Amino acid sequence: MSGRFAGKGAVVTGAGRGIGRAIVQRLAQEGAQVAALDLNLEDAMQSGGALALRCDVTNAESVAEAVAKARETFGRLDIAVANAGIGAAEGDGSEQFYGAMAQRNAELAKNGSSDIIVDQLIHMEDRGWAGVMEVNVGGAFRLAREFVRVLAKDGNPGAIINISSTSAQSGEGSPHYCASKAAIIGLTRQLSRELAPRKIRVNAVAPGPTNTPVMAGIPDEWIKSMEASIPLGRMADPAEIAAAVAYLASVDASFVNGSVLVANGASYFF
C-alpha cells in the first residue's frame, strides 16, 4: 500500500470510537498497519485497523502484551498514539455536579438569579480522581514505556503522539480531567527531550470540543454554550483531529518535537 506511512506499524489506544477510531482510519488510509487497542474489543474490531486487541491502559501487563503482539504481527513499530481517555469515573462527583447545574439553570430561567453553587471537588472521592488519572495519564505513560522498549530493542526511530485537550490551558472542565490533560503536556515535553537521542519524537494534540460519543453525557445546554464560544461556530469532527495526529506522525513534522498542536477552532490560545 502506498502513502506516507507505507510499511509503518502503529498502535492507537482508545481506538474503538470517536477520535481514536478516526486516527486508526487516517493512519490506515495513508498506508500504515494499525493495531487498534481498546478496552472494548468489539469496538476495536470496528475501527478499521489491521489488528484489533483488547487493552486496559490502566494495567501494565495488558499494555505490554498488546504492544508486543502488534510488534510481532507487523514486524516493526513506528507510531504510538495515546488517545485513550475518559472524562468521568465512579465516585467523582459528576452526578452532584450536573444535578446542581440543572437546578441552577432552572432557577436562572425562572427567576433570573440563583444562589446554588455548582461544586464537584467537594463531592469527589479518591477513587473518582484516580479513575480518570489512571486512564488519561497512566495510560499515556504505559503506552510510551512499552513502545520505547520495543524501539530501543529494534534500534528504530519513531513518533509518539499524546492526546491532550484545550482544557489543560483553559481550566474548563472537571478537576481530574483538566489536571490529567495538563499532565499529558508535561509528560510530552519531558519525553521529547529524553527520547530525542533515540530519534523518537514526542508531541501532543490538544483538541477543543469534538463531536464524539463522550459528548453524549454532557447536558445539551452545556454543548450549546461550548459551540457558541468557538469562533468557528462548531465542534471539531474527529477526522480533523486525526489529520493533526497524522501530520505529527509523518516526516513532514521531522523537526517538530515537544510541541502541542492546538486544534480548537480558536476557542482558546495556548
Verbal overview:
- The chain has 270 residues and is of the alpha/beta class.
- The protein has one domain: NAD(P)-binding Rossmann-like Domain (Rossmann fold, 3-Layer(aba) Sandwich), CATH 3.40.50.720.
- Helix content is 47%, strand content 14%.
- The chain is built from nine helices and seven strands; from the N terminus they run βαβαβαβααβααβααβ.
- It has helices spanning 18-29, 41-45, 60-74, 94-111, 126-154, 167-170, 175-195, 220-229, 238-249, and strands spanning 9-13, 33-38, 51-54, 79-82, 158-163, 200-207, 260-263.
- Strands 3-2-1-4-5-6-7 form a seven-stranded parallel sheet, sandwiched between helices.
- Strand 1 (9-13), helix 1 and strand 2 form a beta-alpha-beta unit.
- Helix 1 (18-29) crosses helix 9.
- The longest helix is centred in the middle third of the chain and has 29 residues, at 126-154.
- The relative contact order is 0.14.
Shape by Cα distribution: elongated
Low-confidence segments, given as residue ranges, are: none
Task: Round the Cα radius of gyration to an integer and report it.
Answer: 19 Å
CATH architectural type: 3-Layer(aba) Sandwich
Question: What is this structure's SSE topology?
Answer:
Blueprint: E1 9-13, H1 18-29, E2 33-38, H2 41-45, E3 51-54, H3 60-74, E4 79-82, H4 94-111, H5 126-154, E5 158-163, H6 167-170, H7 175-195, E6 200-207, H8 220-229, H9 238-249, E7 260-263
Parallel strand pairs: 1-2, 1-4, 2-3, 4-5, 5-6, 6-7
Helix pairs in contact: 1-9, 3-5, 5-7
Which features would summarize this protein structure in a list?
7-stranded parallel β-sheet; 270 residues; alpha/beta; 14% strand; 9 helices; Rossmann fold; 47% helix; 7 strands
